[in-house]
Amino acid sequence: MSYQVNKSDAEWRAELDPEEFRVLRQAGTEAPFVGEYTDTKTAGSYRCRACQAELFRSDTKFDSHCGWPSFYAPLAEDRVEYVEDRSFGSVRTEVRCATCGSHLGHVFEGEGYGIPTDQRYCINSISMTLVADEGPEDAPRRA
């Protein structure tokens, strides 16, 4: 697959710390309930930590109690790509950044969360950077 951002492993290793590289570039998974954004309620956009492409908005984030930040939809369907994952003896759907191909997490189908879709995107915190929205106190003032 060809991506808009295409770098060698050496280039990615120079930009990412070892744990970021393991998760983003080698499809690793961070431990549940320890990620930076698992319980975050801050309004803003979640971007790919590798390339800064905007992937998810905080208004689609919900608490699924799965141990990873969960979203019910990406910002737009063209922001992510889906890959069949047959690792660990099961079939899952891997979610990758469509801009750089970095591993983000997995998406699962299922109801019962009281959300608008039946999609549960369980995304590694280490795969994302949260860019907070400007609050009213930070908004530009009109003269």
Characteristic key phrases:
mainly beta, Metal Binding Protein, Guanine Nucleotide Exchange Factor, Chain A, 3-stranded antiparallel beta sheet, 2 helices, disordered C terminus
Question: Can you name the CATH architecture of the domain at 35-131?
Answer: Beta Complex
- Percent range for β-strand residues: 25-35%
Helix content: 10-25%
The CATH class label of the domain at 35-131 is Mainly Beta
Structural class: mainly beta
GO biological process, one term: protein repair
GO molecular function: metal ion binding; peptide-methionine (R)-S-oxide reductase activity
EC number: 1.8.4.12
Pfam families: SelR
Explain the overall architecture:
With 143 residues, the chain is mainly beta. The chain has a domain at 35-131: Metal Binding Protein, Guanine Nucleotide Exchange Factor, Chain A. The chain is built from two helices and nine strands. It has helices at 9-15, 18-26, and strands at 44-48, 54-57, 61-62, 70-71, 80-85, 92-97, 103-109, 119-123, 128-132. It has a six-stranded antiparallel beta sheet. Strands 2-1-9 form a three-stranded antiparallel beta sheet, with no helix packed on it. The radius of gyration is 16 Å and the shape is globular. The termini are far apart. Mean pLDDT is 92; it is low at 137-143.
